[in-house]
Design goal:
Layout lengths: L2 H8 L15 E7 L3 H12 L4 E5 L11 E2 L8 E2 H13 L4 E4 L3 E7 L2 E6 L4 E9 L3 E3 L15 E2 L2 H4 L7 E5 L3 H10 L5 E5 L9 H10 L2 E4 L3 E6 L6 E6 L2 E5 L3 E4 L3 E3 L29 E3 L11 H21 L3
Parallel strand pairs: 1-2, 1-8, 2-5, 8-19, 10-17, 11-12, 11-17, 12-13
Antiparallel strand pairs: 3-4, 6-7, 7-8, 9-18, 14-15, 15-16
The structure holds flavin-adenine dinucleotide.
Flavin-adenine dinucleotide binds next to α2, β2 and α7.
Length: 328
């Protein structure tokens, strides 16, 4: 089995057992997103007897990208996959339509409500909408990156670190995501180059110390990857460093330079901040009546599972109140 096959096998995209709702359905409430915000919103909406659709590329969201969770109340430690299963099975208790594996490409205002269009042309309409689309990994945007995704270019160390046993790899970034990724790689990789454009890492000392103590990590500060090299798979990196352009021979590169909000489908419909997050008030209301947002895609601080779940609950209750005040 080659590296690309293994990557596909380990990269988490949920397969799940929700029956597919028929396209063309009309709903009281549509929720875009199957992470903790969207799934919690679905539970609250269903308990209010709203006819509800969840449209989500996957069930679990970012929880699929990590292994264990130590800060979700009620559990000392829970495996992220188990937590996803618990969210999923709770949603399944209710008559909620779940279109999983569906990417919403566009949302438009239609009559008194909203029209959702899937990337495969599926369409649904709803009187109200909750956007809970979370975040995705930011890419470097350098030559070779797109071409070599799954062939040594990776964004999720939790998912893909074991593929690099005994190999030299690079981690790009200097915040907590990068340091966490490097720590996840420590038991596997023979050597790690940490490449950071700033003069110093900004992540927590508690994450930095094991890297410094390992003797396996070379730190390249004030350095930027300009190209990912390789034809069939990653063979190296061209790095602009203070001493000039250097080539690093690596078999893998983990891009850990942060996350960007998935607000694309509602761009132009609601106000966003400079980072592209949907601006919400304390009741998850956006600048457009009837359109609510919850979780990591919003301006709410503290991007955490418990916060996203709480915001999902608030958004569903706010949507319910809005529907009562605006009967269709
Ligand atoms: C590596 C890692 C480790 C983490 N560890 C922890 C931890 O230990 N504890 C903690 O509390 N938090 C942790 N977090 C943060 C936590 O996972 C997030 O804060 C949380 O998942 C956000 O939930 P959300 O529902 O807002 O968004 P997400 O979890 O990002 O879910 C978004 C959902 O929207 C879907 N979606 C996006 N765009 C579309 C579209 N156009 N059409 C249809 N569906 C779409 C996605 O498929 C997904 O289902 C971690 C995050 C990462 C990346």
């Amino acid at each position: 089995m080659n590296l690309a096959d293994l990557t596909l096998e380990l990269t988490p995209f949920a397969t799940d057992e929700f029956p597919k709702p028929a396209p063309g359905g009309r709903y009281d409430l549509a929720i875009i997103g199957g992470g903790p915000a969207g799934l919690t919103a679905a539970i609250y909406a269903a308990r209010k007897r709203l006819k509800t659709l969840v449209a989500a590329e996957n069930i679990g969201g970012q929880m699929l990208w990590t292994s264990s969770v130590e800060n979700y109340p009620g559990f000392n430690v829970v495996q992220a996959r188990d937590l996803v299963d618990k969210f999923r099975s709770q949603v399944r208790q209710f008559p909620v339509d779940v279109a999983s594996g569906l990417q919403v490409a566009a949302v438009s205002a239609e009559g008194p409500g909203f029209r959702l269009e899937g990337s495969g042309g599926e369409a649904f309409t709803a009187r109200s909408l909750i956007v809970a689309t979370g975040k995705r990994y930011r890419s470097l945007g350098v030559p070779g990156e797109k071409e070599l995704i799954g062939k040594g270019v990776a964004y999720c160390a939790t998912c893909d670190a074991p593929l690099f046993a005994g190999k030299t790899v690079a981690v790009v970034g200097g915040g907590n995501s990068a340091l966490t990724a490097a720590n996840e790689l420590l038991p596997y990789a023979s050597k790690i180059h940490l490449i950071n454009s700033s003069p110093a890492v900004t992540g927590d000392p508690v994450l930095l110390e094991p890297l410094k103590g390992s003797g396996k990590v070379d730190f390249h500060m004030r350095s930027k990857v300009s190209e990912i090299l390789g034809k069939e798979r990653v063979e190296g990196l061209a790095v602009n460093s203070p001493g000039g352009v250097v080539r690093l021979d690596v078999s893998g590169v983990f891009v850990e330079i942060g996350l960007i909000p998935n607000s694309g489908p509602v761009k132009g419909l609601v106000e966003l901040n400079r980072e592209g997050e949907i601006i919400v008030d304390c009741s998850c209301r956006t600048s457009r009546p009837g359109l609510f947002a919850a979780g990591d895609v919003t301006t709410v601080p503290a991007k955490q599972i418990v916060v996203a779940a709480g915001e999902g609950a608030k958004a569903a209750l706010a949507a319910y109140d809005w529907l009562l005040a605006n009967p269709g």
